[in-house]
Design goal:
Length: 310
């Protein structure tokens, strides 16, 4: 879709399409195109969970359910998990879909690569529980991890979970005495619920998952009348000072691309150690396709290296 000038945008790194990924990309486009915009509200939960459960789980990772500060969820625990370390992963699904159980296989890949126990909370979903229920649950779980003895906590999130992760990190930055998160990783985060980014138009044909009308309807379930431009709804409008080091990974073919680009620019202006990798030819949520794309495997490996760096 056009390579950015990295000589002037050092916080954004362009990742060209690997030759080996080109045939798989063509095949995937043919499979997805007829179903663009189909997923809507709560009625899609079963389909979404079934899709996520098809992802291959990592080997040598066990699972345990737990309730932390009133929020249930699942641990993904590598056999050589490091003591006093934890990752909190906030799942995607546009605040309406997704579950900890469905995300276990994908998140196990992060846990295995980092050798770090990773917890996925079942935060409350809209429309039954609109804003700010999910934010409250994310904070409750983080505080519970810290109270349980974790001293090195990283926060990761994909799509809507990326929005929740940013909100959580910003909240912690404003809380004196809180255990500070060591890092944050955001996969195609939702940062602007007003949908004002230019790529909601410029990537309309390239994006094979969403339409702007579809997403506007889903977001209304989460907002339940709240102001989409408020900082609580759109984390791009938060005070981003004092956030931990952040890494973002986004596909060049998705309408959410500008959500990442504009957020990274604002975080950089606030003095945050932040970088965005834009992967040519990739769709929203591409790291889940690690059995198909070299780009997905590379992204997961780089995410892990970032999370476990000293």
């Amino acid at each position: 879709m056009g390579m950015p000038d990295n000589s002037t945008v050092s916080i954004e790194v362009w990742r060209p399409l690997a030759p080996a990924d080109a045939p798989a990309r063509t095949k995937l486009r043919a499979l997805l195109a007829p179903h663009k915009g189909e997923m809507r509200g709560p009625e899609a939960r079963g389909f979404y969970d079934a899709f996520m459960q098809q992802i291959r789980a990592a080997t040598d990772v066990s699972y345990r359910s737990e309730v932390i500060n009133g929020v249930s969820g699942w641990w993904c625990i590598p056999s050589a998990a490091k003591a006093e370390r934890a990752i909190l992963h906030l799942h995607g699904g546009w605040f309406v879909l997704g579950s900890a159980n469905a995300y276990r296989n994908f998140v196990s890949q992060i846990a295995a690569r980092t050798q770090t126990a990773t917890f996925i909370p079942d935060y409350r979903l809209a429309p039954e529980h609109p804003l700010p229920a999910a934010l409250e649950d994310a904070r409750a779980v983080y505080d519970g991890l810290a109270e349980g003895g974790a001293r090195h906590i990283a926060v990761t999130g994909d799509s809507a979970g990326g929005a929740l992760a940013i909100e959580l990190l910003a909240s912690l930055a404003q809380t004196p005495g809180a255990v500070r998160p060591t890092a944050g990783v955001l996969l195609s985060p939702v940062t602007d619920l007003t949908l004002s980014g230019e790529t909601w138009v410029s990537r309309d044909q390239a994006d094979l998952l969403f339409t702007k009308e579809q997403i506007r309807a889903i977001i209304s379930l989460y907002l339940a009348g709240a102001d989409a431009a408020s900082a609580q709804a759109s984390p791009i409008n938060l005070d981003l000072h004092d956030l931990p080091p952040l890494r973002l990974h986004t596909g060049d073919d998705e309408m959410l691309l500008d959500d990442s680009r504009r957020f990274v620019q604002r975080a950089n202006a606030a003095g945050v150690d932040v970088r965005l990798d834009v992967w040519e030819g990739m769709q929203h949520g591409f790291p889940t396709a690690f059995d198909t794309f070299e780009a997905s495997r590379m992204a997961l490996d780089e995410i892990a290296a970032f999370l476990i760096r000293p």
